[in-house]
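Pilot study result, target chain (177 residues):
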Amino acid sequence: MKARARQILDEAARQPSWVPEHAKGDQELWSAALVKKALLDAFRMLRRVGGRVGPAGFSSYWPEFQNNPEDYADEDKEKRRPSYYTRMTVTRMEQVLLGWKDDDGNTHAAWLAGSLLMVPELRSKLVAWTKSEIRGEPFTDLCKRRRWPLATAKRHRDRAAYMIADRLNRLGVEPWV
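Predicted structure:
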């Protein structure tokens, strides 16, 4: 019995590994859950920093107003929420929504572009889920309204997030969420 077990282990050791090269280390990898969280963060940031678009965004009839720090001196600093607008969160939003250049100068497409463009039904479910989460609408209601089977919509959403995670892992992007 032991001899047969050793033989099986030896044969397995000689076989090429089924684990991809980018996953053969102790580094953290992107998962579908991390991708969905990062997408939500990016869309929330876009919602916060995105201003008016078009002619109305250029000017208004109200005069310019500048905050004076002395106006807030009496307030308790612990009551105020910390600013969400950091350079890192804006950079991550741009990387998710617009794409990025790596250290070698290679340009990479945005997360929702790339291979997801070849599978529009997966991409549409992920984008719809993200927007429904941002609005605070339950995904089940969205699926009912669009007449999508809930299990299929969730499977498509998760598959699209997995495709993004796989792409990021292959490129060696470290998870930040």
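One observation from the pilot: The CA atoms of residues 62 and 87 lie 29 Å apart. A full batch analysis is planned for the follow-on phase.
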